[in-house]
Write a structure and sequence with these properties.
By secondary structure, the protein is mainly alpha-helical. The protein is 60% helix and 9% strand. It has one domain.
Length: 88
């Protein structure tokens, strides 16, 4: 009887606690969204005065002055989406 009461109490205690941890999908979605916003902010930081100075990368116009940083951020985003997602 003591074992049953203890197991019931332990089960109720564990079920009543709310987890502060996010679900894996929500966690990775949030990280990907933040990285994407960082890329947008970077590409918008350079004014487009001469279109010939820009290259097209996917949906982005990238100026040579930010290309290295842009490439690194895109690599980080792709790495997150492919290898660190919730299904890995």
């Amino acid at each position: 009887m003591k074992k049953t009461t203890f197991l019931l109490f332990a089960t109720l205690l564990l079920l009543s606690c709310k987890s502060d941890k996010e679900y894996p999908y929500e966690y990775w979605s949030r990280l990907s969204e933040e990285k994407y916003k960082e890329i947008i902010a970077l590409t918008e930081s350079v004014t487009c005065t001469d279109i010939e100075e820009f290259e097209i990368h996917g949906n982005f116009l990238v100026h040579a002055s930010i290309k290295t940083r842009f490439d690194r951020l895109m690599e980080e985003l792709n790495h997150m989406d492919i290898s660190e997602g919730p299904c890995q």
